[in-house]
Amino acid sequence: MAVEAERGMTDMGSRHEPSTSGAGVVEAVRLRSIQKYFGSNHVLQGVGLCVRRGEHVVVFGPSGSGKSTLLRTINLLEEPQSGSVVVEGREYGPGVPGEPKQRRGDRRELRKQVGMVFQQFNLFPHLSVLDNVTIALRRVKGMKRGEAELRAARQLDRVGLLSKIGSYPAMLSGGQQQRVAIARSLVMDPKVMLFDEPTSALDPELVGEVLAVMRSLAETGMTMVVVTHEMGFGREIGDQNVFMDAGVIVEQGGREIYTDCREERTRSFIRAVL
Amino acid sequence: MLAQQARGFSFDFSVVTNNLDLYWAGVRLTLFIAVTSFVLATLLGVLIALMRLSRNRLVGAVAAAYINLFRAIPLLVFILFVYYGVRIAFGLTFFTALRAGIFAFTVQYSAWLGEIFRAGIQAVPGGQREAALSVGMGRARTFFTIVMPQAVRISIPPTGNMLIGMVKDSSLVYILGVNELLRTTNLLANRTFRYFETYLATVGIYLVLTTAIYYLVKYLERRFAISDVLSQATRRYSPFARNRYQRLRTLQEAVGGGSSIAP
Q1: Which of B151, B116, B97, B92 is nearest to B44 (CA)?
Q2: Residues with Cβ < 8 Å from B18, sequence gap 6 or more?
Q3: What percent of chain A stands above pLDDT 70?
Q4: Strand pairing partners for A56?
Q5: Cβ distance A229 to A273 under 8 Å?
């Protein structure tokens, strides 16, 4: 594939390469002691996670383990009861108990730096494909229409949908819709991309095209956090692999986790899925 | 002549054709009442719907009580209450018969429309809001650019039904002596004793009015439907679509393709 060309060519390449400063590798995202309840259900029980720049984190685990909630906490679509989210050095969320109160960042600033792709795509059905991708550029970044459309068209070209710019979401296949959704997030130039089971709502035939786009995105060095049931894909791109169950991180590690994990719970899950 | 008429054998529609100016004045006032009330009720209804969905419990409860109260009172009772009750008890000379009627319609229809709009807003999937927030939009922007356009499309058919109901209900103010279509007919009939002919004409006029609204609503529904100008024939006869087609083509050529990360 045209990976080399892309690295040179764009907006995404070098900036997202893992960069090291004096202290070591720079963090893109850090979750600190996240506590989240839905009513009396304790879905995240003091979870912490560190994502380095350019790293690809894969989160897996059974349904109801809190992995989607964890992902949605990163851009504060779920507001935790306590704990904090640190993105590019800036702290958001209610904070860790016992620490001195400090000024926290605005949620909208956080969301401008974090892109998100949903299981159900969530494209805006009343807007054309092009408008889906330009709307945030124009309404959030205040970009002029012409420039926004040019950028959006480039991004749509990257996901192979330049021919569909005039279509509406309902006219596209699930795989195409999800690729538009990826373009909609990427066009905002996020520092981190979150994927919440991006292929779970797709026909098996269409999973491949979405994974291919995600794979190439990973190759450009984008920082990614992916919640997925596609264990094969996880094993392929996951630098850091996180197994969650019942609101806690049971185990995390490199690729070896898929073949040689420490915890029995992880082993039984992987055996059942793979 | 009277005896002949009582047996019902001779219909004479000249009473209608000779008084078209009266009918026309009646129709104009009927439409004025209906449209004015409906526009006001729509604005108030949007406010009621937003209050109903407010995160503030008290505001939500006030809106719910408003809806509950005004849907409960029969419209005719409410009209009489506003005009004879409220106006006289409080000396509100502002409430002429016409204004009292429009006020009563506005209040009652805003309660119904408020419920329609609330349902329309709630029918937009939560994922839409989340997607908008996730690209950095604020709450207000999310509502106006993402949620509302979808809610409007959902609300068009039931709102159209309400408009048809409004045109018909506007006849109720005849009881206050407002010279809209029904009272005009009533006076004409009493003067000429041609009840069948005059009322038949009025029935026909209401039929024409509601049918026209039906087609207006259908047109709006189609207007808000979506179509792809790049693949569909619409561009051939709509100058707007043709312009858009040109713009998209130009954009495609400018980008040109080739740097795809897609399969």
Answers
A1: B116
A2: none
A3: 91
A4: A224
A5: yes
Of B134, B141, B244, which has the smallest distance from its Cβ to A77's Cβ?
B134
Give A18→chain B minimum CA distance, Å. Answer: 21
Return the percent helix, strand and coil in chain B, to nearest 5. Answer: 80, 0, 20
The Cα–Cα gap between B135 and B206 comes to 49
Strand order from edge to edge, sheet including A90-95: A41-52, A27-38, A82-87, A90-95
Tokens of A120: 């159900």
| CA A42, chain centre distance (Å) | 23
Contact indicator for B77, B126 with CB cutoff of 8 Å: no
SS3 call for A228: coil
Provide the pLDDT for residue A242.
96
Which tokens sit at A3?
Answer: 């990976």
Residue A166 backbone dihedrals phi, psi, to 5 degrees: -90, -5
* Cβ within 8 Å of residue B194, ≥6 positions away: B5, B12, B15, B188
> If contacts are CB pairs under 8 Å, which of residues 123-182 in chain A contact chain B?
123-126, 128, 130, 135-136, 139-140, 149-150, 153-154, 157-163, 165-168, 170-171, 179, 181
Q: Are the beta carbons of B259 and A9 separated by less than 8 Å?
A: yes
pLDDT over threshold 70, residue A191: yes
Residue A125's closest chain B neighbor by CA? B150
Element (H, E) at B240: helix B239-255
What is the C-alpha separation between B102 and B82, in angstroms, rounded?
Answer: 10
Chain B residues touching A155 at Cβ < 8 A: none
Q: What's the half-sphere exposure (Cβ side, CA atoms, 13 Å) at B205?
A: 25
DSSP state of A240: E
Residues 177-206 of A with CB under 8 A from B: 179, 181, 184-185, 188
- Most B CBs within 10 A among A128, A172, A237, hence the mutation to make, goes to A128
A73 touches chain B (CB under 8 A): no
ipTM of the complex: 0.87
> Looking at CA atoms only, how far is residue A155 from chain B in angstroms?
9
Q: Which residues 217-246 on chain A approach chain B with CB closer than 8 angstroms? A: 217
pLDDT digits 0-9 by tens, A56-113: 999 999 999 999 999 999 999 999 999 999 998 889 988 888 887 777 788 999 999 9
B235: nearest CA partner in chain A: A166
- Residue-wise pLDDT for A2-30, tens only, equals 333 333 333 333 333 343 443 445 899 99
